[in-house]
Prior knowledge:
Number of helices: 5
Number of strands: 6
Strand content: 5-15%
Shape: elongated
Helix content: 40-55%
Structural class: alpha+beta
Distance between the termini: 88 Å
Oligomer: single chain
Amino acid sequence: MPEVHPGTHRTTALAHPATARAVAGRRRRAWRWIGTGTTATLAGWAFGPGFAETGVGWLRALAGFCVVCGPAASVVGAAALVTSRRVRHVVAAHPWTACRAVAVPAGQGPPRVVLRLPTADDLVPLSVRTAAPHYHLADPGPDGVLWWAGDPGTGGVVAPPGGEHLLWVRPTPSGRLRRGDAEAAVRHGLLSGPTPPQPFADATPRQQDGDLPRATFARAADTTGPNRTPPAQEAGQAAQAAQAIQAGQTAQAEQAEQAEQAEQAAQGRPERGAPGR
């Protein structure tokens, strides 16, 4: 059953099959790095002294390579595993949102992008945390669209449309860089482009017969929005409703009593008039 994002009726990013496969693939690759590094380290320490005694140069070099590079590979795998768990946590808690995006020329270092959130037209400058061979995946391309899942304040995941290639992103750390990136994105027309179609647009569960409209539940659950009735007004309305109900019950009781008295009076008239005949 697809997971549903809390507070909405949109499925989470992890419910997308391509995203689920990408998350599982990241985890497998991380464990592969850890396993390879650990195996190389153990092999270097176990066979290194014997290789050194043989006097064969390439065997000594191989043992040294395993001893040095094995721990490095394990560290890389451990870092990748931590990132994969962060990615999974984000895509399991947030839905995919298609955003207009602009890549900011970073010169050296990891790429930076600016997203325009479709809900409020807010600009979100982000720095991509990935290896150099994956830098090209942060380029929105000619369509200028990236999928986004996460929190603008803490970071999240971006991906090219389709949700298959996941990139871990964080808010751009420097305030000066954030302002500069936002200004550059505006100059590139980020605010003027149309809002792209949203993933899972048809994922809203269909309203069942007899259910109230979902907007009714949204207004009832809204404690801070403009539709929220002030507490004092709510109390007054509740008191008026209670008084109306009580008045209606009293009127019904009085009508029933009057009808009973009229019936008794109608039955008693012939008995009082009989002796006078």
